[in-house]
Amino acid sequence: MDLLIRNGRVIDPANGLDGPADVLIRDGAVSRVGPGLAAPPGTPAIDAAGRVVAPGFIDIHVHLREPGYEYKETIATGTRAAAAGGFTAVACMANTSPVNDTRAVTDYILAQARAAASGAAPGARATILESANGLARTLMRLHADRGVTIQLDVAPDHIVRGQREDLDEMLGNLLDNACKWARARVVVSSTVQNGRVSVTVDDDGPGIEPSMRQIVLQRGVRADQAAPGSGLGLAIVRDLAEVYGGSIALDRSPLGGLRAALQLPASANGDRS
């Protein structure tokens, strides 16, 4: 991103600046600061007369309250308020439920923060096969002692609208869950229809009772309370999918275990069946 900010009051304590100046941004980074700057032809310009131009502020004590207390504040509302006030980084307190004292809860908060910012990257695209390949290699190594195999039936041109990190988060949670419960086999497949990509993750494990399939999509719920885990994985998938206008559903798999069906909007270049 290139941008020229003109006529603002530039305040930068680290460099001893406090006065009128222009700021030239090239490729998303500050290139020059000074009076009367020239910019390459076609560079967008903003007149900041009467406004302060400064490095982003950092708030090291923020109560975002999600998960658990969304009626007080959410990650989306808290971070948007911070950005509106010029804060570009925040440190959230651990007064959540469950308390943020595990990696699982931290990963959930980071995933929600990325989801809240997803609208800032409307042109983002992610390829299902690229994400699934990397995740499959990692998980097969982790479960090598059990002999679990992951079969990918995914076309290389199945592409979704969204950030790669978010697709990795969704597929990673679904594949991790499938590998954890599979006896020997996990299959990932994808189709495209009516502008939507459907990704299914099947396993040959014990599956989940129909009465529990909606319940386990809720935050903090596990199908087997004796099994390790935080119960946040499927909730992360559901929340991220909904942010992108998608959905997640659980059903019985043809392999005998669980089928997780993730639907996401296809990118314009990947909208082919």
Supply database-style keywords.
273 residues, alpha/beta, Urease, subunit C, domain 1, 3 domains, elongated
Structural account:
The chain has 273 residues and is an alpha/beta fold. The protein folds into 3 domains: 3-53, Urease, subunit C, domain 1 (Roll), CATH 2.30.40; 58-120, no CATH class; 125-270, 2-Layer Sandwich (Heat Shock Protein 90). 25% of the residues lie in helices and 31% in strands. The protein has 5 helices and 14 strands. It has helices at residues 75-84, 103-116, 128-142, 164-181, 233-243; strands spanning 3-12, 17-26, 29-34, 45-47, 52-53, 57-62, 87-92, 125-127, 149-153, 159-161, 185-193, 196-203, 247-252, 258-265. The strands form 4 sheets. Strands 1, 2, 3, 4 and 5 form a 5-stranded mixed sheet that branches. β6, α1 (75-84) and β7 form a beta-alpha-beta unit. The longest helix has 18 residues, at 164-181. It starts with a strand and ends in an 8-residue tail after the last strand. 34% of the residues are buried.
In short:
Helices cover 25% and strands 31% of the residues. The protein is an alpha/beta fold and 273 residues long.
Question: How are the SSEs placed, and which strands pair?
Answer:
Elements: E1 3-12, E2 17-26, E3 29-34, E4 45-47, E5 52-53, E6 57-62, H1 75-84, E7 87-92, H2 103-116, E8 125-127, H3 128-142, E9 149-153, E10 159-161, H4 164-181, E11 185-193, E12 196-203, H5 233-243, E13 247-252, E14 258-265
Parallel strand pairs: 1-4, 1-5, 6-7, 9-11
Antiparallel strand pairs: 1-2, 2-3, 8-10, 11-12, 12-14, 13-14
